[in-house]
Specification:
The structure holds 2 protein chains of 2 kinds.
Chain A lengths: L1 H5 L3 H18 L5 H27 L9 H16 L6 H26 L3 H20 L8 H7 L2 E2 L2 E2 H19 L1 H11 L1 H6 L4 H26 L9 H13 L11 H20 L4 H19 L7
Antiparallel strand pairs in A: 1-2
Chain B lengths: L1 H26 L6 H7 L3 H16 L7 H13 L1 H4 L1 H24 L4 H19 L9 H7 L8 H18 L2 H11 L1 H6 L4 H27 L10 H11 L11 H15 L1 H5 L7 H25 L1
The chains are: A mainly alpha, B mainly alpha.
Chain lengths: 313, 311
Amino acid sequence: MIQALRARPWFWSFAGAAGAFAATIATLHGQGAAGVATAALALAVFMVLAGIGQMFVITLGPGNIDLSLAANIGLASAVSMTVMNGSDAGIGLGLAAAAGCGLAIGAANYLLIWLLRIPPIIATLSSSFIIQSIDIAYGRGLQIKPPSGFADFTSLQIAGLPLLAVLALLFTGGIAVLLRRTIYGRSVLAIGQNTHAARLAGVAVGRVRAITYMVCGLLGGLDGAFLAGYFRGANVDIGNEYLLASIAVVVVGGTSVAGGEANLPGIWGASLFMVLLLTMLNTFGAGAGVRLLFTGLIIVAVVAFGGGRKTAQ
Amino acid sequence: MAVRVRLLRGLLPAFSLALVIAAIAWINPRAMSYFGFNLMLSLALPIALATAAQMFVIAGSELDLSIGAFISFCGCVVATWLNQSPLLGAVLLLGGVAAYAGVGALIHLRNLPSIVVTLGMSFVWQGLAILVLPQPGGAAPDWLQTLMSAKPPFLPLPVIGSILLALVCHLLLMRTGYGAVLRGAGGNPTAVTRAGWSLLKVKMALFALAGLFGVLSSLALIGISTSADPNIGSNYSLLSIAGVILGGGEFIGGVVSPVGAVIGALTLTLAASPLLTFLHIPPDWQIGANGALLILVLAARARFARTEAAR
């Protein structure tokens, strides 16, 4: 039994999510369970998208991380809202612009890593500084509301299920196939397990890493557009919490920080857990300080108990 | 030739700083005065102290993403408890240093990735900061305000402080036996263990030093700003990493340079705000300038490394 659970690290994140949900409902005396679940699913989607992007990058192996995700989300939210310009006709173009913005950021990140041969942490850190500045200069005072069609789309529910969550679930299925069944996906895993061996086996390491940073950028960009739709407007700080959250859900969800081992179900479990945890603390009437304190303690505890797998390479 | 390239690379941080100062002098010669430097470098000391804190962690081949939130927390303590009941405040700050040593122990004992653990800790410190001081406010103790607004003869306080800081860190890390052991933990942990040193104690010492300099940074910061806010240090996590790297530090292998780190912090301070102001570039681009500076210096360094490798 223990053995079986150890092989499925995502189990714990779902168990945590269920526990937080139960505690919330108990405090509410059984009222509004459906509403809590719907809201949690809707909010978890944004973490899942950022988390999947970060998961791809982290799976590439030690040292690979994308610190520009928050700035990326912020800039893409502003770009998409500007391009849509409040009209339903511009939705497609706006989404494409957000995706393009994210892709460009991912490509720029990899270009820095490749050209300067610097650790990805520092490359994405410096680019995040620059993106943040662009966003502040470009997005300040930008008060463009999303087109009503797009805003409705991001908060649309089908029988209590947020449409975005359903789409994200289908998308996750696609990502699972991509990761397990395609040459690209298996190359990512191979590079994370042993870059040298992967190169000797004929994997185009440079190209796969470039694509991976671009995938992460793309997902961040789309996340920014959806966030702007859901929260009714772009904002420089809209992505701020998603940098730390994206790393947290990847790790809490059981993806190996040492790379070469991705865990998709865990991303969903951990995202739901993080959102429901905050919901629970909110229902208990806890203030912002207590919420942050508990979030932090739980991340550290989960890593401390489940960790110890930082293999030396 | 190879020696010359290596020397050039070692002088790169000082060269970058000289370049930034020269640019400021060229645009606005009047800034080159006691008063000018005092003003331009007003925030240099807290940033340099935070960079020193980060340097100790990087010396052990780890990374601390929580130092900014920790400085926020300490700042809130300094502006409230330390002001009203100094003894309790001092105990709380020392408790923070002890907690840092504990994080070092946890990372070592459970063999955890420091990025993730310190990421979690950044939430913890941020939460505690809000609990100590929910709204911006509080007041710095009088002695601290007096100390930080001192005007010593000849050299402005930030310059004297930075020189002192660089000296202390250099002596501690580069000129003592235990300093070599501390750096060895990042360079070759196996060798350090074989030589009979406890790696656990080394990691705890490195993190405790980081905590200590984090506390000093918050003291300097609150002394200057005279009041606190729970987000006062939030930029410092990333800034301090940038400072260490600008100063010639590397992420792995325990390669750090204390003098370089302090120079890196000064370069960041000068390039971010005064230079931009003199160039009439809006403050929106302040953070971006830091990023561009980081990329420029790393590009120069990569160029040197390639020349070195080619020989």
